[in-house]
Amino acid sequence: MGTYAANLSAVFRGRRGVSPVYSDAGRFFQATYLTGKMGELLTDVMDVLAGGAGSHVLQLRTPFGGGKTHSLVALLHLVRNRAASVAACPELKDIADPGNVQVAVLSGEELDALTPATATGIETHTLWGELAAQLGRYELVEEHDRTGAAPGGEVLRQIIGESPTLILLDEVLIYVEKAMVVARGESNAGRQAMLFLQALTEVVSAQPNVVMVYSLQASVGEAVGAEGLLSDLDKLVARVDSKREPVAGDEVLRVVQRRLFAELGDDATHQEVARSYSDLLRKQLLAAAETGDARREADAAADSLEERILAAYPFHPELLDLMYHRWGSLISYQRTRGALQFLAAVVHALWKSGAKSPLIGPGDIDFTDEATRGAFFSQVGERERYVSVLSSDVTSDGAGCATVDRTLGADSPMLAQLRVGTRVASAIMLYSFGAREGEDRGVLETDLVKSVLVPGLTRNVVVSALHDLREEELYLHYTGRRYRFEPTPNLTKLVRDEATKLSSNEVLTEVRGELENQLRGTKGVALWPEAPSGIADERPVFTVAYLHPDWSEDRDPQSKFIEQAGKGAPRRYRNGLALVLPDKGQFDLARHAVRLRLAADSLLSKARQYNFSAEQIEELREKSGNARRDGSAAIGAAYSTVTIPIRSRTGDAPYVLETSDLRTMLAAGRALHERVVEALSQRVFSSITAAKLVALAGLGPDRKAVTCADLVDWFYSYYDFTKLWDKHAVASAIAKAVSESELGYVVGVVREGESIVPRDARQVRFGERLTADEVDLSNDAAILWHDYAREFLLTVVEPTPEVPEPDSTGGAKPQPAPPAPSATPRGGKPGSGRGGPSDVVRVANVKAVVERSGLFNLGRSLSWLRDEQGSVRIEINIRAEGEFDRASFLNGFLEPIEEAAEDLDINTQ
């Protein structure tokens, strides 16, 4: 950083260690952009030294780092080494040449009233002693120097002599301020120094070829409160034109360009970059322009930006503007030197990192670089208050802007490379210090967007990043439509603190509730089964099981859910199950969003306790609403994969898992379950053709009938069968097959050995219209092979009466009696031992123990009894153990029994 802070005294004395860019006249002017004001200064001074007219006493009045010392060094080199100066800067050749000039340099930073100076070989104690020693006439003021009494004008005229003389005084105020505390008789060294300067000014003004140039701070604040001294020193020159400012306006830009870059590349590159940025801004502005005037303003703004980029290259003009117009209002900011130091650090950091950007703009500042941070805080001040802000919200891996980087860059390599969140946050940090006249601190969205746009980045993405940063950043404030960082946490901090109070179970319960809302009204869903028993078996509905967010294949393999039904029992309906696997990343986002929503809602409920303003309450409501939407979106995308078992074609295993990626499916406007259904649409169907059902049933001479219950079981049990969303598809296919004479259908069957026989042939339906609602899919109904059905239809046709054949006596020949029917009771299976000689069951006493897995079949049995004729009395003894919600237990279980039972004895614990 010292490279950009000139030391006039060190250059004057040729002190070792001074950078050649200052000590060597040629190198100095090669690196110097000769501003208009500096050129005028050099011209005026050389004219007077050559005997011409002009001001003899000149004051350089700029803020710290405004080019004062640099201008004094330029004067020094021009009078001491004119040839090298002109060779390096041809613009100097037309300036007057005064010939040999005696030079004296008094530096307020180097000298003080207590420490003798010895650089000349003579020990001096005062400014006048040092001046006389440098000009070789110390004997004239030896006594004045020893006593500390300022000499009069006549002595000073003798010290200066008749030769062209240039006297350079740097940081005068600093010397006088230090000297004020050193007593000199009834006066002090500071007062004597002021008397000396006043006398010197009068002497120099009267000499024909003598010039005195001194530097002074621009404001009381920079003068460390020495307002009186500053005013006195300011009055050393009366004429306005004797006060010079070496660097003005956009000249800082040229100074920086010349100093930091040996050359700026070819003009074609500059023009291409300027045109790209101009076109980008024009496109963004025209998109929002609604009138002809607005469109003309957009074109004008774009053209202006192109011209300014050509002038500012390789810097974005917005970066230089904010430094000059905003930081310029800061006491700590050194306008020229500060710009050089800060931008030098910025350029070096970007060069080291290999960063590639068309321009260096506010969003390109690498605050992770230590030198850049140091230069930044040196210029804007408030290091102690803002260092933690910068670390928390911009440079740390856990900063909110890093989260935004990852979010926006997840699906776009270009956005990932641009690191949009960090880019925007870095720019806001720069804009958080200083302000334009009449404005508050911070930056409007429109100005911020203009400063961070680069080819490949759009306004919409920047606005999205801003929205996300407001949610993620701890110290980012948005007030008065302006963004800025402040050292006090915003509501984000309170929300985060409140969020940490919530347990994982509370948050997960809310997530489950949101997911249940999204799945409400959906049939055949099992949500977050913790074990295979959590997925019902033997339900003729295709089941989609959404596994728990914390599910792990290593802990609970998918095969466990597919093959088991709980308590070691194998799953029967394996062909009626799909597993939807969680995306842990999305569930983390969902948990985060739900946690923020709950926290914001909690803070809203404590608004009086925290004494929130109306603005803060509105912001909390906005946070809650945004978190609710974000949570809903994350939950909707929280499942990434759906798997389904299908028949293995290799024979090594009965099934393989087929996987579908839900993330590749367009999700706009569609709920989670809708996407799952679509993903399964090539494997699970809502209908089946009659021909397919006939083929799968395998009816023929060897299997003439199949009960409808068995048929449904086969569809949900065997991988060879078509997967169906529900059994209604089977009923529809049966109805269609019967109507098309592909199958027969009958309600009421008995078993004869291995055969299934209709109890009443007249109930066989074949080749007639049948609706799905008429099809009974229980064990008491069956489908029949078409030839088998025809046989029964023939038996119910009324036979033609036959005339008995006469016997030998002339009487009628007796006919054999029909065989007695042999039947199996309904529900009997071959080899079950439950068949009997009678075709009627008159009394049935059944005692059975039914576990949870058999409740579905128990329901089917009771439904059959309800539909049959006869007297039914059921005595039940139910023992249910578990943790049941009491209200749900009373309403769902006990109340229906109370309404049905005559004698009720209930004991609950």
Automatic annotation (TrEMBL):
Pfam families: DUF499. InterPro entries: DUF499. Residues 800-839 are annotated as: Disordered. This is Uncharacterized protein. It comes from Streptomyces swartbergensis. The lineage of its organism: Bacteria, Bacillati, Actinomycetota, Actinomycetes, Kitasatosporales.
